[in-house]
């Protein structure tokens, strides 16, 4: 079995992967039926987005029972089968650990909200209202963009006073919700139905560790850890600092985060030395990363950053950020490699790299040209992702070149992030609707969540029922796994070949990374080196022919064009081996 540094992860969004019983919702049986496809693709580790019992306010990222399977997805017996069948094919399975918050329907929260002296009260973060005060003085933080904060709300009736501070939720509006029963506010950095767990409470921490052991004892191979840098909160709960109102990165890297992660390692992970751990590093800068993943820290193995992710703040739906230029993107990769270190010393850490996941639009639509060069740009992204330094994650559907899905109306979206942003921005100001919809069509998370396109059968072969929980992208007729399976020149077969070859290349697993042309506007050229072994990658991230400003010697071993020319053709990517 490959170690975490040699592995390639494949992310499954279970709701959209494969539906076995015709209800239009993907499920565990569906995944089992596709395991041969995944083994044959050549990935090593499957990461399942949450499969636990949940009311699905945020599609499973709001868990109401950490040790039960979501009934829509199947039973515990089916999960056990999935695990056995995954292992039987030589693959590993990791689960999503969502422990910054639970669902408000979790038994702990149901208890916690009952009374101030309930034994579960301190499992969550409760604070008294702050006293009402004249508005101008209270609204201290100024929004950084041109949009006014959604007010601290809660003003008015019933002794609600004001929220304890001016923190904002990821999914629009204040991060505090007043609860009548006990007359206090609880913290929710995400949706109201996702109350934050109180990691200050040692009993809560032990419950989480016990739950982690429950899954690891079943044979699960590790965890992807949801917003893990958020676990520790500044117990003074200060307002946002001047000029940084609504800056959600402030919630990361709290005062006790490393103490908690080291405790988790001691109590759980150290006893399962083969367990894989990937932290979702929202708010962690390259300079801070080794505090989480430095090998001698005994915290996590890998982290993935957000430096090239689509920004998530609500006003982005009106004022979308421009896409990264190639020099910016290259600088992000170079910066992370430098910050993590490449000398092999014990304080260095490791990263998990991605171009797409369930929180971003489709990578092909962001970085490629899905209209004119769908094959070339999808395979270029494959080639770059799989030759960078770090453990790559392939997001489901990217291996067949799935694209953003055209959505025309707000009610075609499912995601709570889009819906809440719409309610906050467009309901009070209808003329923003066209700008909002245009932006959502570019950046919304639902683009990555449409059902997997298995074939050109109705509903893309994802289900044999009449409906799907989210629209199928109409381009499934052209873009689907079945058609690509037998076409030797498909995106799918390019991934298969590259993944198979990558397994035999220690230089790609552990070699250093050096950007050869950091300032070039359209070429991404870099070298990977391990001892005498050197690979050069050149990729033309543009729709035009580009002359190569460096002389390439050595043997061409991989490329995405049948015939090469002196120039690099649109979205052409090549790998050369330099002979020592
Ligand atoms: C993470 C997940 C995202 C979810 C959020 C709250 O960022 O990847 O999908 O909405 O955490 O759990
Ligand atoms: Ca189903």
From TrEMBL:
Pfam families: Alpha-amylase. Keywords: Glycosidase, Hydrolase. The keyword Hydrolase applies. SUPFAM superfamilies: (Trans)glycosidases, Glycosyl hydrolase domain. GO terms for molecular function: alpha-amylase activity. Residues 11-444 form the Glycosyl hydrolase family 13 catalytic domain. Residues 131-166 are annotated as: Disordered. The keyword Magnesium does not apply. GO terms for biological process: oligosaccharide catabolic process. Belongs to the glycosyl hydrolase 13 family. This is Glucohydrolase. It comes from Spirosoma montaniterrae. The lineage of its organism: Bacteria, Pseudomonadati, Bacteroidota, Cytophagia, Cytophagales.
């Amino acid at each position: 079995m490959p170690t975490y540094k040699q592995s390639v992860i494949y992310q499954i969004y279970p709701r959209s992967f494969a539906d076995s019983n015709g209800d239009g919702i993907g499920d565990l049986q569906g995944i089992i039926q596709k395991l041969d496809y995944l083994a044959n693709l050549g990935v090593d580790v499957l990461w399942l987005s949450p499969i636990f019992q949940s009311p699905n306010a945020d599609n499973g990222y709001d868990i109401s029972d950490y040790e039960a399977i979501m009934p829509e997805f199947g039973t515990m017996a089916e999960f056990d089968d999935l695990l056995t069948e995954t292992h039987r094919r030589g693959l590993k399975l990791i689960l999503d650990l969502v422990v910054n918050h639970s669902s408000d329907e979790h038994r702990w929260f149901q208890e916690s909200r009952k009374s101030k002296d309930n034994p579960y009260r301190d499992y969550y973060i409760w604070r008294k209202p702050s006293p009402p005060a004249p508005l101008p003085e209270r609204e201290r933080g100024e929004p950084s963009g041109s949009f006014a904060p959604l007010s601290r709300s809660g003003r008015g009736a019933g002794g609600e006073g004001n929220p304890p501070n001016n923190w904002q939720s990821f999914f629009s509006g204040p991060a505090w919700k007043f609860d009548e029963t006990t007359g206090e506010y609880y913290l929710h950095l995400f949706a109201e139905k996702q109350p934050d767990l109180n990691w200050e409470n040692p009993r809560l921490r032990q419950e989480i560790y016990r739950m982690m052991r429950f899954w690891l004892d079943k044979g699960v191979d590790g965890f992807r850890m949801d917003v893990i840098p958020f676990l520790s909160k500044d117990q003074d709960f200060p307002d946002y600092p001047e000029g940084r109102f609504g800056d959600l990165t402030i919630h990361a890297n709290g005062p006790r985060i490393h103490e908690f992660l080291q405790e988790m390692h001691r109590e759980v992970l150290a006893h399962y030395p083969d367990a894989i751990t990937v932290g979702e590093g929202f708010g962690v800068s390259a300079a801070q990363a080794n505090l989480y993943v430095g090998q001698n820290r005994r915290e996590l193995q890998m982290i993935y950053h957000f430096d090239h992710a689509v920004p998530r703040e609500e006003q982005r739906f009106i004022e979308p950020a421009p896409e990264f230029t190639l020099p910016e993107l290259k600088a992000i990769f170079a910066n992370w490699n430098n910050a993590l270190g490449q000398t092999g010393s014990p304080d260095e850490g490791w990263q998990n790299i991605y171009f797409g996941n369930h929180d971003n639009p489709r990578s092909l639509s962001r970085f490629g040209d899905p209209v004119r060069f769908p094959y070339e740009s999808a395979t270029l992204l494959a080639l770059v992702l799989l030759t960078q330094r770090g453990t790559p994650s392939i997001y489901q559907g990217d291996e067949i070149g799935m694209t953003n899905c055209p959505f025309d109306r707000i009610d075609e979206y499912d995601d709570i992030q889009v819906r809440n942003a719409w309610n906050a921005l467009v309901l009070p100001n209808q003329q923003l609707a066209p700008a909002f919809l245009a932006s959502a069509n570019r950046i919304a998370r639902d683009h990555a969540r449409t059902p997997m396109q298995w074939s050109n059968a109705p509903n893309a072969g994802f289900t044999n029922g009449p409906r799907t929980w989210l629209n199928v992208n109409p381009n499934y007729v052209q873009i689907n796994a079945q058609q690509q399976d037998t076409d030797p020149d498909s995106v799918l077969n390019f991934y298969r070949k590259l993944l198979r070859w990558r397994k035999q290349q220690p230089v790609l697993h552990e070699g250093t990374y050096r950007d050869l042309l950091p300032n070039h506007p359209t070429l991404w050229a870099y070298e990977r080196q391990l001892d005498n072994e050197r690979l050069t990658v050149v990729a033309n991230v543009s729709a035009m022919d580009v002359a190569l400003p460096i002389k390439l010697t050595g043997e061409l071993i991989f490329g995405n064009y049948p015939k090469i020319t002196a120039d690099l053709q649109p979205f052409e990517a090549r790998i050369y081996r330099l002979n020592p």
